[in-house]
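User: I'm curious whether this sequence folds into something compact or stays loose and floppy. Could you predict its structure so I can see for myself?
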Amino acid sequence: MKTFRFLVFQTLILFSVASCSYRPLFAPDEIPADISITEDRNSILIEPLNGAAADVGLLFYPGGLVDNHVYNKLLSGFSSATGVPVVVVKMPANLAVLDIYSGLEIVEDFPDTARWVIAGHSLGGSMAASVVFKYPDEFEGLIFMDSYPANSAGLSGWSGAVLSLFSSIEKISDSERMEQTLSLIPPATWIGESSRVYPADKSNYSVLHQIDGGSHSYFGTYGPQDGDYTPTITREEFHSEVIDYMREFFDENGWR
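Assistant: Here's the prediction. I'll summarize afterward.
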């Protein structure tokens, strides 16, 4: 009886947490017309309607307490621009920390996809890094969106490639956080409009890019988020820049 009551209590807590999650704020007609979105209880699949086979896919971990669907607009834009299918992992109570390795089970449903890149926003990015830390050979690349690895999951020696995108200079101005970020990822180079040079050796490297005027919630389509900075650019401008750098990252590494 005590076990049953405990399970009921846990369920109520998870429901309460999930009900407080940030919800999507976009209309269906904002999704590119050439994109198909299908989903089941475990994931959301975003892919081009032309059905062209792709040997690389992007696995995405949502941020903490953020509805899984808020990233559909950004990731649909990326898939439309690159032809790369995206799989968004649905997390219990919208918290990736509760089921860190669930994405590994989902990619098994795509046997024709030979290579995977994993990405995540905020808490989702940290949990994605933990997956790579434990299973380093399963992924060729990792994309952080306002995120970095946990201290226990440093990837400085990982042979893969990392793209780290920051929403604003305010988010990375703390020197201690910046030092921690750089020490936990492969050797890093800043890239921007004036310098977009990638290392010649496409292994064990990171590239970092700051999107001026953005905000943390802009990686999704929700907000404003508690404690976030006031953006000075539009969400559309922000998404365009994110997609541009993600597409370049894939091209530079020969993933499409």
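Summary: Helices lie at 2-19, 72-82, 102-107, 123-134, 169-172, 175-183, 235-252. DSSP finds seven helices and nine strands in the chain.
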